[in-house]
């Protein structure tokens, strides 16, 4: 099974480890550079991007993660993890910094102007079956994508209809919502396949 780490600085690490294990990965938390060396792919969990950014520096994981991304390691970020994979962040803290990630602009806490948390059906391109029951918690949305970025999912109903909430650029995958908080393992299975293909 592919070895997939979950960046374990802050956020819903356990939920992602369980979801990855349920999707057939050998899943483990990653807190140190040596642990990062041992994984084939990485998940950046939901949580608080400003905190994850700060701790990435303190734990000296920023450069190692940037290098692995440059080397083609697959990474999946959900919510705060999406923000950490964005080339540009609107409404971020001035000192927060993402990894060398996806060519996109995200707006932090974007839905929060309407409502803090909500749920909506979202279809993700390349994933068969029912739309995801997407859970959004002070979530970002994607305002701009570069040429190399594929839009995989948008909100289709309600006040946020049309907002981009799932994207992929090469081996980098990001969602505004939290599939790890539902029993639906299709997104994690999709990522496990991506890691398998890249290995
Ligand atoms: N608002 C958080 C941030 O800016 C993200 C929220 C989440 O991950 N559920 O990082």
TrEMBL record:
Protein's pathway: Cofactor biosynthesis; pyridoxal 5'-phosphate biosynthesis
Keywords associated with the record: Glutamine amidotransferase, Hydrolase, Lyase, Pyridoxal phosphate
Annotated catalysed reactions: L-glutamine + H2O = L-glutamate + NH4(+); aldehydo-D-ribose 5-phosphate + D-glyceraldehyde 3-phosphate + L-glutamine = pyridoxal 5'-phosphate + L-glutamate + phosphate + 3 H2O + H(+)
MF-aspect GO terms: glutaminase activity; pyridoxal 5'-phosphate synthase (glutamine hydrolysing) activity
Keyword rRNA processing: no
Active site, renumbered: 79 (nucleophile), 178 (charge relay system), 180 (charge relay system)
Enzyme Commission code(s) on record: 4.3.3.6, 3.5.1.2
Pfam families listed in its UniProt record: SNO
GO biological process: L-glutamine catabolic process; pyridoxal phosphate biosynthetic process; pyridoxine metabolic process
InterPro entries attached to this UniProt entry: Class_I_gatase-like (IPR029062), PdxT/SNO (IPR002161), PdxT/SNO_CS (IPR021196)
Summary of the function given for this chain in its UniProt record: Catalyzes the hydrolysis of glutamine to glutamate and ammonia as part of the biosynthesis of pyridoxal 5'-phosphate. The resulting ammonia molecule is channeled to the active site of PdxS.
NCBIfam families found in the cross-reference section: PLP_synth_Pdx2
Entry similarity comment: Belongs to the glutaminase PdxT/SNO family.
Assembly description: In the presence of PdxS, forms a dodecamer of heterodimers. Only shows activity in the heterodimer.
Protein name: Pyridoxal 5'-phosphate synthase subunit PdxT
Organism expressing this protein natively: Micromonospora deserti
Name of the encoding gene: pdxT
């Amino acid at each position: 099974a592919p070895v997939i780490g979950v960046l374990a600085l802050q956020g819903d690490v356990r939920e992602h480890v369980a979801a990855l294990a349920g999707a057939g990965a050998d899943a483990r938390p990653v807190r140190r550079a040596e642990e990062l060396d041992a994984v084939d792919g990485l998940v950046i969990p939901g949580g608080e991007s400003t905190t994850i950014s700060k701790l990435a520096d303190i734990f000296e994981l920023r450069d190692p993660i940037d290098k692995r991304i440059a080397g083609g390691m697959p990474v999946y970020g959900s919510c705060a993890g999406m923000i950490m994979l964005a080339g540009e962040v609107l409404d971020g803290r001035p000192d927060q910094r993402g990894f060398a990630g996806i060519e996109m602009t995200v707006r932090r806490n974007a839905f929060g102007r309407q409502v803090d948390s909500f749920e909506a059906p979202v279809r993700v391109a390349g994933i068969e079956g029912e739309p995801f029951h997407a859970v959004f918690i002070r979530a970002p949305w994607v305002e701009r994508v570069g040429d190399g970025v594929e839009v995989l999912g948008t909100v289709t109903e309600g006040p946020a209809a049309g907002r981009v909430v799932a994207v992929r650029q090469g081996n980098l995958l990001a969602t505004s919502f939290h599939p790890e908080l539902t029993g639906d393992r299709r997104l994690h299975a999709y990522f496990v396949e991506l890691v398998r293909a890249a290995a």
